[in-house]
Amino acid sequence: MNAVCKPSALAIIAPIFAVIGGAASAQSPSFSCDQVAPGGIEEMICKDSELSSLDRKLSDVYAQAARKATNEHPPVLQAEQRGWIKGRDECWKSNDKRSCVQGEYERRIAELQARYRLVPGIGPVTFICDGDPRNEVITTFFQTDPATMIAERGDSVSLMFVQPSGSGARYQGRNESFWEHQGEATVTWGFGAPEMHCKKSP
After folding, report:
1. Range of the domain at 177
2. Rg (CA), the chain
3. Among 146, 114, 147, 129, which Cα is nearest to 189's?
4. Which residues, in sequence order, are bridge partners of residue 194?
């Protein structure tokens, strides 16, 4: 009679450890936590499952953007990402460090998704400003979180984020703003620039 081979204890336990190990790695950020500085922003991320999840999401979105930016010269994406990491780490100065870090991640993810068209967009929608057909602002709205829009005026491009508003849709960029209600928009373009009154092009 042939002997029946019984599985070893190791053979039974190994898959369990593999599952546990996979679950642990799923809770980690995209970077190694082995040598992060004590008390730093990266250590905070390593210890916070929600922030770690945001870091993994950003890593995935960045990889998608990088595939679309292969012919980008100069390599703006790489340089901006290095700058973003430095800005994120400046959150140690904030009174609410965790909220600051979370906001930095959410805005960066939304920025990359909009700029590199990684999520659905609505548009382009053209607005004619101050009654001059030559003075137009072309907008595209993106279903990011938070919501974003990209506005173009001449050779200038502005990425804007949605803002709280009692009515209509309000967006704010670095030095530009856009507030639309029922097909009409108030737009400022540039620091200290006067408001333009714009209507959606038919």
Report:
1. 121-200
2. 24
3. 129
4. none
Q: Does 2 fall in a domain? A: no
Cβ pair 87, 141 in contact under 8 A:
no
| Separation in Å, CA 129 to CA 3, 135, 137, 138 | 88, 5, 7, 11
Q: What is the pLDDT along the chain (202 residues), one digit of tens a residue?
A: 444 444 444 343 443 333 334 444 558 899 999 989 899 999 999 999 999 999 999 999 999 999 998 887 678 899 999 999 999 999 999 999 999 999 999 999 999 999 999 999 999 999 999 999 999 999 999 999 999 999 999 999 999 999 998 888 999 999 999 999 988 999 999 999 999 999 999 8
Q: Are residues 131 and 97 in the same domain?
A: no
Q: What is the CATH number of the domain that holds 159?
A: 2.40.128.200
- Please state the pTM of the whole predicted model: 0.82
For the chain, what is the domain count?
2
| Residues 153 and 85 placed together within one structural domain of the fold | no
CA-based torsion, 133, 136, 141, 146: positive or negative:
negative
Pick from 143, 162, 151: nearest CA to 187:
151
Separation CA 153–CA 156 (nearest Å): 5
